[in-house]
Amino acid sequence: MHIDIFVAPEQWTTIPVVVKMFKLLINELYSQMETNMFAADNSDDEDDDEENGFEDDGSEFGLGKGLTLQSLLESLAPVSDIQEDEDDNELDDPDALSDPIYQIDLHAYLKDFIQAFSREPCFAMFSSSLTVQEQLVLQSVESK
């Protein structure tokens, strides 16, 4: 018996680079929101977990299921490739700690940027290329 199974080839969509960059910002905001929710859940349940001897690895919260800016950058240049020495930790560098970039609340910054950008006339071009998940993140930002 001979069965032919047709497998459709992978299809790619072409989008402008500025739209892709916007999508990466939305995905990073989602990652930040997910991290904040995980941290809030963890702090609420920390006492209960310690009493019950429960250890949570975070896998059921969907961490790492989406493309985040951090995972994209790590795939391009893994930290192990650019990390010189354990002793050269940037947290020991007082200049790095006083740098304004180090002090940015990325979640708040991305949320403010996306809210402001969504009011721009060119936003329609960007929003038409968003996935359902990205649209939900955008709606959650606009509702707050």
How is the topology of this model organized?
Elements: H1 17-52, H2 69-76, H3 79-82, H4 94-98, H5 106-117, H6 123-127, H7 132-142
Helix pairs in contact: 1-5
Reported for the largest beta sheet, the result is: none
Element order: H for helix, E for strand:
HHHHHHH
Number of strands: 0
Percent of residues in helices: 55-70%
Alpha-beta content class: mainly alpha
Q: Uncertain segments of ≥5 residues (pLDDT<50)?
A: 54-64
Q: What is the residue-mean pLDDT, rounded to a whole number?
A: 75
Rg computed from alpha carbons, rounded to a whole number of angstroms: 20 Å
**Alpha-carbon distance between the termini?**
60 Å
How many distinct helices? Answer: 7
- Apparent shape: extended
Percent strand equals under 5%
Structural summary, described in words:
The chain starts with 16 loop residues before the first helix and ends with a helix. Helix content is 56%, strand content 0%. With 144 residues, it is mostly helical. The protein is extended, with a radius of gyration of 20 Å.
